[in-house]
Amino acid sequence: MTKLKLRILFDEAMLGPGKAELLQGIAETGSISAAGRRMEMSYKRAWMLVEEMNAAFRAPLVESVRGGPGGGGARLTDTGAEVLRRYRAVEAVALQAAEPEIAALEALLRPGAGTDMSDGK
Fold first, then answer.
1. How many Å apart are CA 60 and CA 76, to the nearest integer?
2. CA separation (Å) from 54 to 4, 77, 118?
3. Residue 55, exposed/middle/buried by CB under 10 A (0-12, 13-18, 19+)?
4. Whole domain around residue 69: which residue ranges?
5. Does 114 map to a domain?
6. What is the pLDDT of residue 70?
7. What CATH number is given to the structural domain containing 94?
């Protein structure tokens, strides 16, 4: 299956599919560690990415929820939810605009060449 992966590079920050997936996971699980586990990512790496995103935007995207009877957790702030929504919107617009060109590229592929040509890069 052909996919379009989009990275938005700002002056000193980047938002791409991994960070968007992490934000989505936090929104769905209420936990940075659970979102990281879903992505097979260490808790340390997930926290580092959250800290990067929180530092890059004017307002934090994720906030921690301290302990209590059910333990702590995390949630997206209003800004975090907006950033995720807008990133997904950009993805959708880009995919729609790119579909004819992607189809033309697919038509030029050798049969069975659907393997990863990037060699993991």
1. 9
2. 26, 10, 31
3. exposed
4. 16-108
5. no
6. 65
7. 1.10.10.10
Calculate ∠ Cα 79-97-12, nearest 5°.
40
User: Residue 116: inside a domain, yes or no?
Assistant: no
Amino acid at 24: Q
The number of distinct structural domains making up the chain is: 1
pTM, entire model = 0.85
Distance between CA atoms of 75 and 64, rounded to whole angstroms?
7
- pLDDT per residue over 6-35, tens digit each? 999 999 899 999 999 999 999 999 999 999
For position 115, what pLDDT does the model report?
59
Does a structural domain hold residue 121?
no
Q: Any residues with CB less than 8 A from the CB of 120 and at least 6 apart, and which?
A: none
Structure-token match 């938002």, residue found: 15
Name the stretches of the chain with pLDDT < 70: 67-71, 114-121
Contacts of 49 (CB under 8 A, 6+ apart): 18, 19, 22
pLDDT at 89 (0 to 100): 98
Residue 49 covered by a domain: yes
